[in-house]
Amino acid sequence: MKPETREEFQDLVYAAGLSEEDIRWDYSGRGMYGRECVGLTCSESEMFGFIGEVARATEDDDWDWVKDVRSDSMGLDTIWYWPNVSVEEEDDA
Asked: pLDDT tens digits, residue range 46-88?
């Protein structure tokens, strides 16, 4: 399942052993021309763990979205992002 809310994405991040500090809700990568998407700042091995967790958490075959990941180097860190995934903040109402 493609996450549609921040809570759904956070659940996947936490299950993979990553934290809130690793998430970028408003990343705009190369060629995105200001559009924003969700991203994770983590190592390559942590990204493989995240992808594995998405596969485990998804009951059907609707996890193809995670394969469309791109990355940008940020000096010592790498940000992994999904140009076609933007998650909505949940309303507190």
From this structure: 999 999 888 888 766 677 788 889 999 877 789 999 998 878 7
Contact 91, 5 (CB under 8 A): no
Please state, in angstroms and rounded to a whole number, the distance separating the CA atoms of residues 62 and 1. Answer: 5
DSSP codes, 22-91: GEEEEE--TT-TT--EEEEE--HHHHHHHHHHHHHH-SSS--GGGGG-EEEEETTEEEEEETT---BPPP
Q: What is the CA radius of gyration of the chain?
A: 13
Going from N- to C-terminal start, the domains of the chain cover 6-82
Q: Which residue has the tokens 């193809």?
A: 64
CA distance 62 to 66: 9
